[in-house]
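Holo prediction. Input below; ligand is iron/sulfur cluster.
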Amino acid sequence: MNTTADAIAAIKTKLGRDLCIMGHHYQNDAVMAHCDISGDSLELARRVPRIDAARIVLCGVYFMGESAALLAREGQTVHLPEPDADCLMSAMIPIRLARRVLEQLALGGRDIVPLAYANTSLAVKALTGEYGGAVCTSANAETMLAWAFQQGKGVIFMPDKNLGHNIANRLGISENERHVLRIDGRGLIEPASQPLDRKLLLWPGACSIHARFRPEFVERARAGYPGCRIAAHPECRQEVIALCDAAGSTSFLIKEAARVAESDSGGTLVIGTEENLVRRLAKRHRGKCSIFPLSHAICPEMSKVTEEKLLAVLEGIVGRGGEPLEIPENFFEPARLSLTRMLEVCGK
Ligand code: SF4
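Structure of the complex:
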């Protein structure tokens, strides 16, 4: 008997409709087994306004909890099993530096709209809202980038340069219309020497999990699994995406696995994204198709959430009401604005 799982199940029964557990697809199977709602960051954000439960427990990294708390209704509280789980990419854009760079661009005369990937801190989302921009996820980055170009003369996409390049490729924005900003701890390095008048400016961040996939991994997969189909997440480098058969968000990759399982019985799909999800898809479609990870890739931050920590947060809710995630008042309105702009543009 798994006592941790049983104890979680008992609390879920006790709290009933007062509790909703949400989990990002990169969580491990033991945690996912307890989730009432699973999704990528867009799906999780979309679902929050429709949740009736007073207590929302979010199994994911910190920014996902912040987004849920922003979109939660009055009286609802959001709890994280591991508040120290933080997206490595979101840490690549400290608020002080982001503000400094936007100020430098404005001082240089640029009419520029910020587009912040969901994987950013609340403070960066608030800054984005303040500057008239919006948030996007990998599932809607193309739509949101097109929207951002309608708002101003140029766009700064923050902080994932790889996603920025991949979306630009899809929208037909050429390499010489883009520029990856050169930044140090004080702001833009020698602004006058950088082509800051380009249409698309990219913050020099990346997901260290997806960025570790290399073109030779794709070549190795093609040699190892002749005839396989290869799909990858757009946080991978553009050189990797160029060699794949398909690319898309986490929800796209899940649908792609289901499509291959249904239409290509006996086929092989190699997926370049976080491995917990790939292994789960392999299990789900076993017998219909073979699914393999492009390479070993576990997000250490997502892995900080465990079944034991989930139980501990639930016990805290039952005992003392738990410690809900607090949103600083000054960030609330501008950050919410940047998120709701995305939901409005993309349809709730
Ligand atoms: S996989 Fe990458 S983008 Fe996702 S939470 Fe981990 S570090 Fe952040």
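Residues 329-346 form the longest helix (18 residues). That is the main takeaway for now.
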